[in-house]
Structure formats: structure tokens, C-alpha cells
Task: structure prediction
Amino acid sequence: MVTRVIPVDPFDLVVFGGTGDLARRKILPGLYRRFCDGQITSDSRVIGAARGEMSADDYRAFVSQAIDEFSGTSNEDDSSKNEFLKILDFVRIDAMGEDGWEDLADKSRENTIRAFYFSVAPSLFGELASRLKRFGLADKTSRIVVEKPFGHDLKTAQDLNAVLAKYFDESQVYRIDHYLGKETVQNLMAVRFGNMLFEPLWNAQYVDHIQITVAETVGVEGRGNYYDKSGAMRDMVQNHLMQLLCLIAMEPPAKFEPDAVRDEKLKVIRALDPVDWHHIVRGQYVEHAGARGYREAVGNPSSKTESFVALKVALSNWRWAGTPFYLRTGKKLRAQASEIAVVFKDTPHSIFGPEAGNHRNVLVIRLQPNEGMTLDVTIKEPGPGGMRLLDVPLDMSFAEALGGSVVPDAYERLIMDVIRGNQTLFMRGDEVEAAWAWTDPIIEGWNARHDVPKPYDAGSSGPDDSLMLMHRDGRRWRDIQS
Ligand code: BG6
Result:
């Protein structure tokens, strides 16, 4: 399938933390792919800004290597890479001092879209924002891009929002949750609001429960320092799973426009009930079959940080009262599988009698890998011998249905949205705060009770207690399999 690419207007993008890991792995290779696709034209500029001493040529060499390593493009023809490298520049900058700011101001062009990507520790957000104003680099049309973690709890998120609000209007702030940039996550809205089929059934009257799973096979890798202070609740639930929940549960916005969508997501978060203790399971992976355990991986033998969480969540609103949402996420699980399963209720009466058994329609939206959708439909088991029923999946793989077209990575999509000035797929400040307001009491409760996560084997499906969370309700998780 050929997708028409419309070039964005020329822009200046300054990447603070321009030599950091995120810039190297995601931001710069992503920009390169957009350039190759013709979405970024050669009159745009990308300026890396960082503390280290580096010439513009050194920076181009650094980016060239990042492209080779992470862009996933075959560079048989170096000409597009060379063209892309020409739009790059570098400024050595002191985020906490005066050095480099005049230089950056000199490089900044008038009447061009300007965006500033804060790919740095949140403690520097205020420093950068104030200097952008002081040195005349940012104006009313400039855009600020900030990364997760946006705060560690409600208080720190409020502080970050306040510091940004001192210098910039909310309409200029783009808070990234990269899940919103994933094509399959955006597709949740297309499926719900682009089809007549699902929406009439999308409520507590017809839906028995919803499962949201984000299972990873990776462990904490080299991020132990950060992760051990964070844990799965802060790292995944407060942001990514919460966003998935919002998109699945929200009311239809009147338009696909930033505040219309974000207003509806905010209402979902505010409708969440506090979670009952019996409805939360925390886990931590332990060594199994040669795989290292969590505590060894983070180098903290007494760590009580969770690498797995499962929760039963309730929404007190008209649409969802009585339909539980089960959420789970974890590291070092048996397979990588992110999916949402909408499990519909039994038919009100079985005309086939008890022998036909219980059958349910289940809509599974696979976010990654094997992106696609499956709808379990009940049919007659073929053959003689009476009316026996069978559930058969209507299975759609996006790769097959869409002819294997290359889908832009989440960051590419989101950065282009920043340049286009479209905030729909970015979190608003009040949304982030509401998510923390719901998450904080859960974490505070763990701390107050000195809660110790349940061990689970690396490579398993998580702690047994998470199975019990559903068994108690007469339900079961779908198997974690990729
Ligand atoms: C990040 C978390 O935000 O998302 C990581 O910090 C996690 O711990 C990652 O592994 C998952 O993202 P993806 O795109 O691989 O599903």
C-alpha cells in the first residue's frame, strides 16, 4: 500500500540531550527516516545541544553511526544520509549556566517553526525553559517536548507543570507517552469510532470484562538505577496502561481534536475508583533457568520494587459500572505480548441447551507483536451428532491486510505531530496529574505496609496470585504468548 507523505513546514528542532541514549536510538534515526520519506525537507534544521565538547562535524559522525545502528534502513545509497547530515548542527550548552545560549540564539532562525526537545533529566526542565525565554529563543509559537517520567508522584508532576507553565502556555507543551504514537494504539480509536459494529455493544450491559496486558520478555537491562526507584506501577501503569485504558473506555469525543480527545480521557481517569488491596498483585522476578533475577540485575539484594503488577480496576460511570478492567504488566515474562481483550457477556439464554456449553465473543486487539485483531465467533461444530458449538476466531493480521507497508515508529509520528502543532496524541498536564492522583495512594499503601512483591520465575506468566485475581471472579487471563 502506498501512503502519500505530505512534507511538514520547515522547522528548527533543538534536541537538548542530543548525544543521549534516546536521541541516539530513537529521535535521530526517526528523523532520518522521515527525511528519507520526504516528510522533512532539507530547509529544516536539527540542532543537537549537549554539555560535551563536540564540533558540528563530530556530531554528524555521531548521528551517522546512530543511523547505521538504529534506523533499520539499508544504506546502500549514502546520498540521502549525506543530505540528512547537512541539516544537522551542534551547540555545546550549559543547561545550568550561560555557556552556549548566545550561540544557540544566533543559530535560531526567525519565522520558522521552533521546537525544543527536552531529552534530559526532569530536574533540568525549569533551567532550560527559563533560559529559552531569557535568551529570546522561544516565543509564543515555540513548542516544548518533554519525556516521561513526568514526575515521580503527584507533587513532583505538579511542580514540573508549574515550572513549565511559568514560561510556556499549555498549548506549547508536548508531553510524550510513546504508546500514543504507536499505530496500533491509535487504531483503538479507529476501531471504536470508525465502525458501527462495536460501539453499541461497548458498555457494561454487553461487556463482561476487559483485559489489558503489556507483557515484556526484557528485564531491566542497563536501567536498574532508574527502574529500582520507579517500579512497574510508575514505569508502565501510570502512563502507558492508563492511556490504553482511557482509549478503550472513553466516550466518543465530538471531534478528533486535541482537547476534545483529552477531555474524554481525563474523565475516564477521574472516574477510576480507588483500588481495593485485594485487587492488586505485585511481583518481582527471580532467577530461573539461567536467567538472572531482578535483585541481581539491579544490584540491590533487598529491593522491594515490583517488576510486575496486576490490578482489578473499576470505573464509576454510567457506561462501565459493573464491568471490571483487569490490567497487568511485567518484565521477564514468558513472551512479549501487548493486547487488549474485550470479553463480551454470554447470550441471555441458550436455545441449544446446557450441552452446548458456554461461549463468548472475545475481541482481541493485538498491539504488538503480530499486530492485528481477532474476534471469536461461536459457530456450529461441523458434522452429525446434534448441535455442538465451537468458538472460531475471525483473525486479521495488519501486516497481511495492509500489504506489509512500513509503519513509522511511535517517535517519528509524534515528532512530526509536534512540528504540525497537533497535540492530540500528547498528554495534557491535568491528565498526567489525575493519573498520579490515582496511582499515589496505591504506592503509598505499599510503602506503609512494607509490602514485599511476590516472587515469580523469570520466563513465567507472573506470580500465581495474579491468576487468583481472576479465578476468584470466575474468570481467567488469556495466555501470554506472542
Ligand atoms: C518505557 C518503559 O516507557 O516503555 C520501559 O520505561 C518499557 O520499561 C518500555 O520497556 C516499553 O515500550 P515498548 O515500546 O517496547 O512497548
